[in-house]
Amino acid sequence: MTELKKTTVKEFVESARMKSDFKEQLEGLRKEVSMCNIDKGEMRRLFREVPLAKIKEYRKMGHDIGMPLKMNEIVVLYVQEKRVPLAEIKDDSPKTVVSGLDSMKPEEKPDFLSVIIDTSYINSMVRESADIKMVFTRLHQLYQGQTGGQFEIVMPQGVYDELSNQLKGPRGKPQVDDKGRPKITSKAFNDLQELIYSSDPIIKLEKDYVSNEDAKEALSKAMQKKTKNRNARVGDGDTAVMLYIRDMAKLKGVAFRVMTYDTDFIGLLKGWKNVTVPMI
Amino acid sequence: MSMLGQRITENVRGAINGDEESRRSINLLLQLPFSTIDKVIPLKDEETRYAKVLLAGMKAVENDKDAIAYLRKEGMADLLEKRPKKLAIR
Predict the structure, then answer these.
(1) Residue B17's Cα: distance from chain center in Å?
(2) Of A8, A37, A83, which has the smallest distance from its Cβ to B47's Cβ?
(3) CA-CA distance, B74 to B50, in Å (whole number)?
(4) Average pLDDT, stretch B18-32?
Protein backbone atom coordinates (compact mmCIF):
# COMPACT_ATOMS: atom_id res chain seq x y z
CA MET A 1 0.00 0.00 0.00
CA THR A 2 1.49 3.33 -0.98
CA GLU A 3 1.18 6.21 1.43
CA LEU A 4 -0.10 9.48 0.08
CA LYS A 5 2.46 12.25 0.15
CA LYS A 6 1.72 14.63 2.98
CA THR A 7 1.76 18.36 2.49
CA THR A 8 4.53 19.95 4.51
CA VAL A 9 3.84 23.03 6.59
CA LYS A 10 6.14 25.02 4.33
CA GLU A 11 4.23 23.94 1.21
CA PHE A 12 0.94 24.85 2.88
CA VAL A 13 2.09 28.33 3.91
CA GLU A 14 3.93 29.15 0.67
CA SER A 15 1.07 27.92 -1.50
CA ALA A 16 -1.39 30.07 0.46
CA ARG A 17 1.00 32.99 0.15
CA MET A 18 1.21 32.59 -3.60
CA LYS A 19 -2.56 32.47 -3.92
CA SER A 20 -2.94 35.34 -1.42
CA ASP A 21 -5.51 33.33 0.48
CA PHE A 22 -3.58 32.55 3.65
CA LYS A 23 -6.26 34.08 5.85
CA GLU A 24 -9.00 32.01 4.23
CA GLN A 25 -6.91 28.83 4.48
CA LEU A 26 -6.12 29.66 8.08
CA GLU A 27 -9.73 30.23 8.97
CA GLY A 28 -10.67 26.94 7.31
CA LEU A 29 -8.04 25.09 9.29
CA ARG A 30 -9.01 26.87 12.49
CA LYS A 31 -12.62 25.88 11.98
CA GLU A 32 -11.71 22.25 11.47
CA VAL A 33 -9.38 22.29 14.46
CA SER A 34 -11.95 23.94 16.72
CA MET A 35 -14.45 21.18 15.91
CA CYS A 36 -12.16 18.73 17.71
CA ASN A 37 -13.06 20.15 21.07
CA ILE A 38 -11.89 18.71 24.37
CA ASP A 39 -14.07 19.16 27.43
CA LYS A 40 -13.02 19.67 31.04
CA GLY A 41 -13.64 16.05 32.02
CA GLU A 42 -11.30 14.94 29.27
CA MET A 43 -8.73 17.50 30.42
CA ARG A 44 -8.87 16.09 33.93
CA ARG A 45 -8.47 12.57 32.58
CA LEU A 46 -5.49 13.69 30.54
CA PHE A 47 -3.99 15.34 33.55
CA ARG A 48 -4.05 12.03 35.40
CA GLU A 49 -2.06 10.50 32.57
CA VAL A 50 0.88 12.86 33.06
CA PRO A 51 3.63 11.19 35.10
CA LEU A 52 4.97 13.19 38.01
CA ALA A 53 8.46 13.18 36.50
CA LYS A 54 7.03 14.92 33.43
CA ILE A 55 5.22 17.49 35.58
CA LYS A 56 8.51 18.29 37.24
CA GLU A 57 10.29 18.45 33.89
CA TYR A 58 7.72 20.87 32.47
CA ARG A 59 7.76 22.95 35.62
CA LYS A 60 11.51 23.24 35.34
CA MET A 61 11.19 24.11 31.68
CA GLY A 62 8.62 26.79 32.55
CA HIS A 63 11.01 28.15 35.14
CA ASP A 64 13.89 28.15 32.64
CA ILE A 65 11.92 30.06 30.03
CA GLY A 66 10.62 32.48 32.66
CA MET A 67 6.99 31.36 32.34
CA PRO A 68 5.70 29.27 35.24
CA LEU A 69 3.40 26.67 33.67
CA LYS A 70 0.01 25.88 35.19
CA MET A 71 -1.44 22.40 35.29
CA ASN A 72 -3.61 22.83 32.19
CA GLU A 73 -0.63 24.15 30.24
CA ILE A 74 1.38 21.12 31.32
CA VAL A 75 -1.39 18.84 30.05
CA VAL A 76 -1.45 20.69 26.73
CA LEU A 77 2.30 20.27 26.27
CA TYR A 78 2.23 16.64 27.39
CA VAL A 79 -0.46 15.85 24.81
CA GLN A 80 1.71 17.43 22.10
CA GLU A 81 4.70 15.40 23.06
CA LYS A 82 3.25 12.03 23.86
CA ARG A 83 0.16 11.98 21.69
CA VAL A 84 -1.94 10.54 24.50
CA PRO A 85 -4.99 8.91 22.89
CA LEU A 86 -7.79 11.40 23.32
CA ALA A 87 -10.77 9.35 22.27
CA GLU A 88 -11.16 7.12 25.31
CA ILE A 89 -12.99 8.79 28.16
CA LYS A 90 -13.07 7.07 31.53
CA ASP A 91 -15.80 7.50 34.09
CA ASP A 92 -15.31 10.93 35.57
CA SER A 93 -18.76 11.48 36.94
CA PRO A 94 -19.07 13.66 40.03
CA LYS A 95 -20.56 10.74 41.96
CA THR A 96 -17.15 9.13 42.02
CA VAL A 97 -15.94 12.04 44.12
CA VAL A 98 -14.94 9.97 47.14
CA SER A 99 -14.74 6.45 45.75
CA GLY A 100 -11.22 5.22 45.38
CA LEU A 101 -9.86 7.44 48.11
CA ASP A 102 -10.68 4.81 50.75
CA SER A 103 -8.39 2.35 49.03
CA MET A 104 -5.64 4.92 48.47
CA LYS A 105 -2.29 3.36 49.27
CA PRO A 106 0.08 5.27 51.52
CA GLU A 107 3.00 6.87 49.80
CA GLU A 108 6.11 5.78 51.63
CA LYS A 109 8.26 8.51 50.20
CA PRO A 110 6.10 11.20 48.63
CA ASP A 111 8.19 13.44 46.45
CA PHE A 112 5.66 16.20 45.97
CA LEU A 113 3.46 18.02 48.46
CA SER A 114 0.21 19.61 47.45
CA VAL A 115 -0.95 22.14 50.05
CA ILE A 116 -4.65 22.83 49.51
CA ILE A 117 -6.37 25.86 50.98
CA ASP A 118 -9.95 25.48 52.16
CA THR A 119 -12.44 28.29 52.82
CA SER A 120 -12.46 27.75 56.59
CA TYR A 121 -8.70 28.34 56.75
CA ILE A 122 -9.05 31.82 55.26
CA ASN A 123 -12.13 32.51 57.43
CA SER A 124 -10.10 31.60 60.49
CA MET A 125 -7.30 33.97 59.50
CA VAL A 126 -9.77 36.81 58.98
CA ARG A 127 -11.34 36.08 62.37
CA GLU A 128 -7.94 36.43 64.01
CA SER A 129 -7.09 39.55 61.97
CA ALA A 130 -4.01 37.84 60.57
CA ASP A 131 -2.03 39.39 57.73
CA ILE A 132 -2.91 36.98 54.94
CA LYS A 133 -0.03 38.01 52.69
CA MET A 134 2.49 37.52 55.46
CA VAL A 135 1.03 34.16 56.54
CA PHE A 136 1.17 32.71 53.03
CA THR A 137 4.62 34.13 52.33
CA ARG A 138 5.90 32.43 55.47
CA LEU A 139 4.03 29.23 54.68
CA HIS A 140 5.67 29.27 51.26
CA GLN A 141 9.11 29.72 52.80
CA LEU A 142 8.43 26.94 55.29
CA TYR A 143 7.45 24.38 52.64
CA GLN A 144 10.25 25.56 50.37
CA GLY A 145 12.67 24.57 53.11
CA GLN A 146 10.89 21.34 54.02
CA THR A 147 10.42 19.97 50.52
CA GLY A 148 13.27 21.56 48.60
CA GLY A 149 10.78 23.29 46.32
CA GLN A 150 8.76 20.17 45.50
CA PHE A 151 5.41 21.59 46.58
CA GLU A 152 2.67 23.91 45.54
CA ILE A 153 0.02 25.85 47.43
CA VAL A 154 -3.25 25.57 45.56
CA MET A 155 -6.70 26.97 45.88
CA PRO A 156 -9.44 25.22 43.91
CA GLN A 157 -11.77 27.62 42.08
CA GLY A 158 -14.68 26.41 44.25
CA VAL A 159 -12.95 27.78 47.36
CA TYR A 160 -12.27 31.09 45.65
CA ASP A 161 -15.92 31.30 44.53
CA GLU A 162 -17.18 30.53 48.04
CA LEU A 163 -15.00 33.30 49.50
CA SER A 164 -16.18 35.69 46.81
CA ASN A 165 -19.82 34.82 47.64
CA GLN A 166 -19.13 35.34 51.34
CA LEU A 167 -17.76 38.78 50.58
CA LYS A 168 -20.74 39.79 48.46
CA GLY A 169 -23.20 38.31 50.95
CA PRO A 170 -26.93 37.95 50.37
CA ARG A 171 -27.66 41.69 50.74
CA GLY A 172 -24.42 43.06 49.38
CA LYS A 173 -22.82 42.90 52.83
CA PRO A 174 -20.18 40.34 53.83
CA GLN A 175 -21.54 37.20 55.48
CA VAL A 176 -20.99 36.96 59.22
CA ASP A 177 -20.39 34.00 61.53
CA ASP A 178 -22.59 33.06 64.50
CA LYS A 179 -20.87 35.72 66.62
CA GLY A 180 -21.47 38.45 64.07
CA ARG A 181 -17.88 38.63 62.82
CA PRO A 182 -17.34 38.94 59.05
CA LYS A 183 -16.20 35.70 57.42
CA ILE A 184 -14.09 37.62 54.93
CA THR A 185 -13.16 41.25 54.44
CA SER A 186 -12.41 43.08 51.24
CA LYS A 187 -8.82 43.65 52.39
CA ALA A 188 -8.32 39.93 52.98
CA PHE A 189 -9.84 39.14 49.58
CA ASN A 190 -7.62 41.71 47.86
CA ASP A 191 -4.56 40.23 49.57
CA LEU A 192 -5.61 36.81 48.35
CA GLN A 193 -5.97 38.09 44.80
CA GLU A 194 -2.48 39.58 44.96
CA LEU A 195 -1.11 36.22 46.06
CA ILE A 196 -2.89 34.49 43.17
CA TYR A 197 -2.42 36.96 40.35
CA SER A 198 1.08 38.30 40.99
CA SER A 199 3.75 37.64 38.37
CA ASP A 200 5.23 34.95 40.63
CA PRO A 201 2.11 33.59 42.34
CA ILE A 202 2.37 32.08 45.79
CA ILE A 203 -1.09 30.48 45.51
CA LYS A 204 -2.08 28.65 42.34
CA LEU A 205 -5.73 28.92 41.43
CA GLU A 206 -6.98 25.61 40.00
CA LYS A 207 -9.72 26.88 37.73
CA ASP A 208 -11.15 23.51 36.73
CA TYR A 209 -12.19 22.56 40.24
CA VAL A 210 -15.60 23.99 41.01
CA SER A 211 -18.42 22.54 43.03
CA ASN A 212 -21.52 20.95 41.51
CA GLU A 213 -24.69 19.58 43.05
CA ASP A 214 -24.00 15.89 42.32
CA ALA A 215 -20.53 15.99 43.82
CA LYS A 216 -21.81 17.97 46.80
CA GLU A 217 -24.52 15.40 47.47
CA ALA A 218 -22.06 12.49 47.19
CA LEU A 219 -19.66 14.22 49.54
CA SER A 220 -22.40 15.07 52.01
CA LYS A 221 -23.46 11.39 52.19
CA ALA A 222 -19.88 10.23 52.65
CA MET A 223 -19.36 12.81 55.38
CA GLN A 224 -22.53 11.85 57.25
CA LYS A 225 -21.55 8.19 57.08
CA LYS A 226 -18.04 8.75 58.31
CA THR A 227 -18.53 11.42 60.94
CA LYS A 228 -21.92 10.11 62.18
CA ASN A 229 -23.02 13.71 62.16
CA ARG A 230 -26.37 14.00 60.47
CA ASN A 231 -26.03 17.76 60.25
CA ALA A 232 -22.65 17.68 58.55
CA ARG A 233 -22.61 20.64 56.19
CA VAL A 234 -20.78 20.55 52.92
CA GLY A 235 -19.71 23.76 51.27
CA ASP A 236 -18.73 24.52 47.69
CA GLY A 237 -15.14 24.87 48.85
CA ASP A 238 -14.99 21.44 50.51
CA THR A 239 -16.45 19.82 47.40
CA ALA A 240 -13.92 21.51 45.12
CA VAL A 241 -11.08 20.44 47.45
CA MET A 242 -12.31 16.83 47.31
CA LEU A 243 -12.57 16.85 43.52
CA TYR A 244 -9.03 18.17 43.35
CA ILE A 245 -7.68 15.48 45.71
CA ARG A 246 -9.54 12.79 43.80
CA ASP A 247 -7.82 13.74 40.56
CA MET A 248 -4.39 14.40 42.00
CA ALA A 249 -4.45 11.16 44.01
CA LYS A 250 -4.11 9.28 40.73
CA LEU A 251 -0.59 10.62 40.40
CA LYS A 252 2.12 8.69 42.14
CA GLY A 253 4.27 10.24 44.84
CA VAL A 254 1.93 13.06 45.85
CA ALA A 255 1.03 13.83 49.46
CA PHE A 256 -1.68 16.30 50.44
CA ARG A 257 -1.96 18.77 53.25
CA VAL A 258 -5.41 20.26 53.47
CA MET A 259 -5.45 23.57 55.31
CA THR A 260 -8.91 23.48 56.87
CA TYR A 261 -10.45 24.14 60.27
CA ASP A 262 -13.81 22.61 59.43
CA THR A 263 -14.22 19.77 61.96
CA ASP A 264 -16.69 17.77 59.84
CA PHE A 265 -14.39 18.00 56.84
CA ILE A 266 -11.37 17.03 58.95
CA GLY A 267 -13.35 14.01 60.16
CA LEU A 268 -13.84 12.93 56.58
CA LEU A 269 -10.26 13.54 55.51
CA LYS A 270 -8.64 11.85 58.50
CA GLY A 271 -9.11 8.30 57.27
CA TRP A 272 -7.33 8.75 53.99
CA LYS A 273 -3.70 7.93 53.51
CA ASN A 274 -1.44 10.65 52.17
CA VAL A 275 -3.80 13.36 53.44
CA THR A 276 -2.86 15.38 56.51
CA VAL A 277 -4.68 18.22 58.21
CA PRO A 278 -3.43 20.88 60.63
CA MET A 279 -3.77 20.26 64.37
CA ILE A 280 -6.62 22.14 65.97
CA MET B 1 12.40 20.96 24.80
CA SER B 2 13.60 20.27 21.27
CA MET B 3 11.59 17.03 21.22
CA LEU B 4 8.51 19.00 22.22
CA GLY B 5 9.09 21.50 19.41
CA GLN B 6 9.51 18.65 16.93
CA ARG B 7 6.28 16.99 18.07
CA ILE B 8 4.35 20.24 17.80
CA THR B 9 5.64 20.67 14.25
CA GLU B 10 4.50 17.10 13.47
CA ASN B 11 1.09 17.87 14.93
CA VAL B 12 0.77 21.02 12.80
CA ARG B 13 1.66 18.98 9.72
CA GLY B 14 -0.82 16.29 10.75
CA ALA B 15 -3.56 18.90 11.24
CA ILE B 16 -3.00 20.28 7.72
CA ASN B 17 -3.26 16.76 6.34
CA GLY B 18 -6.53 16.02 8.12
CA ASP B 19 -5.28 13.87 11.00
CA GLU B 20 -7.96 14.03 13.71
CA GLU B 21 -5.62 13.34 16.62
CA SER B 22 -3.25 16.10 15.50
CA ARG B 23 -6.12 18.52 15.12
CA ARG B 24 -7.24 17.88 18.66
CA SER B 25 -3.69 18.38 19.91
CA ILE B 26 -3.46 21.68 18.05
CA ASN B 27 -6.86 22.70 19.35
CA LEU B 28 -5.48 22.24 22.85
CA LEU B 29 -2.26 24.05 22.00
CA LEU B 30 -4.18 27.07 20.77
CA GLN B 31 -5.54 27.53 24.29
CA LEU B 32 -2.09 28.78 25.28
CA PRO B 33 -1.00 32.34 24.58
CA PHE B 34 1.41 32.65 21.68
CA SER B 35 4.16 33.92 23.99
CA THR B 36 4.23 30.47 25.64
CA ILE B 37 4.04 28.61 22.34
CA ASP B 38 6.90 30.74 21.02
CA LYS B 39 9.10 29.90 23.97
CA VAL B 40 8.48 26.15 24.01
CA ILE B 41 9.25 25.70 20.30
CA PRO B 42 12.90 26.47 19.61
CA LEU B 43 13.67 27.27 15.99
CA LYS B 44 15.45 24.24 14.61
CA ASP B 45 14.68 24.02 10.93
CA GLU B 46 12.59 25.59 8.22
CA GLU B 47 9.59 23.34 8.85
CA THR B 48 9.51 24.38 12.52
CA ARG B 49 9.68 28.01 11.47
CA TYR B 50 6.68 27.59 9.18
CA ALA B 51 4.80 25.68 11.89
CA LYS B 52 5.34 28.62 14.22
CA VAL B 53 4.20 31.02 11.52
CA LEU B 54 1.03 28.99 11.05
CA LEU B 55 0.33 28.87 14.78
CA ALA B 56 1.05 32.60 15.02
CA GLY B 57 -1.40 33.15 12.16
CA MET B 58 -4.10 31.23 14.00
CA LYS B 59 -3.45 33.14 17.22
CA ALA B 60 -3.27 36.45 15.34
CA VAL B 61 -6.84 35.88 14.18
CA GLU B 62 -7.75 35.99 17.91
CA ASN B 63 -5.85 39.31 18.19
CA ASP B 64 -2.99 37.80 20.16
CA LYS B 65 -0.53 40.70 20.13
CA ASP B 66 2.55 38.51 20.54
CA ALA B 67 1.45 36.43 17.55
CA ILE B 68 1.01 39.51 15.40
CA ALA B 69 4.42 40.80 16.51
CA TYR B 70 5.95 37.42 15.66
CA LEU B 71 4.52 37.47 12.14
CA ARG B 72 5.93 40.97 11.66
CA LYS B 73 9.32 39.88 12.94
CA GLU B 74 9.34 36.95 10.53
CA GLY B 75 8.36 39.22 7.65
CA MET B 76 5.07 37.35 7.26
CA ALA B 77 2.65 40.08 8.33
CA ASP B 78 1.51 40.36 4.70
CA LEU B 79 0.00 36.90 5.02
CA LEU B 80 -2.87 38.23 7.07
CA GLU B 81 -3.73 41.04 4.72
CA LYS B 82 -6.92 40.59 2.81
CA ARG B 83 -6.80 39.49 -0.79
CA PRO B 84 -7.27 42.54 -3.04
CA LYS B 85 -10.60 42.50 -4.78
CA LYS B 86 -10.44 41.78 -8.47
CA LEU B 87 -11.27 44.73 -10.60
CA ALA B 88 -14.41 44.30 -12.60
CA ILE B 89 -13.76 44.03 -16.32
CA ARG B 90 -15.67 46.61 -18.18
Answers:
(1) 15
(2) A8
(3) 10
(4) 85
To the nearest 10 degrees (0 to 180), the angle between helices A236-248 and A40-49 is: 40
Q: Do B53 and A13 touch (CB under 8 A)?
A: yes
Give the nearest chain A residue to B57 (CA atoms): A26
* pTM given for the model: 0.54
Question: Any idea what DSSP says for residue B7?
Answer: H
Render pLDDT for A156-210 as a digit per residue (tens, 0 to 9): 999 999 999 999 887 778 888 888 888 999 999 999 999 999 888 899 998 888 8
**What mean pLDDT is predicted for residues A25-33?**
81
Is the CB of residue A177 less than 8 Å away from at least one CB of chain B? no
Packing angle between helix A71-82 and helix B20-29, nearest 10 degrees? 150
Query: Cα separation of A263 and A229, whole Å?
Result: 11
Interface pTM, i.e. ipTM: 0.83
Nearest to B2 by CA among A267, A61, A5, A51: A61
User: What is the per-residue pLDDT for A270?
Assistant: 76
Q: Rounded CA gap, A108 and A101, in Å? A: 16
**Contact A13/B47, CB-based, under 8 Å?**
no
Contact A265, A223 (CB under 8 A): yes
- The percentage of residues in chain B with a pLDDT greater than 70, rounded to a whole number, is 86
At A96, the pLDDT band (50, 70, 90 cuts) reads low
The number of helices, as runs of H, and strands, as runs of E, in chain B is 5, 0
Q: How many CB atoms lie within 10 A of CB A91?
A: 9
Distance separating alpha carbons of residues A168 and A22, to the nearest angstrom: 49
Write the CB contacts of B70 (distance below 8 Å, at least 6 apart in sequence): B34, B38, B52, B53, B56
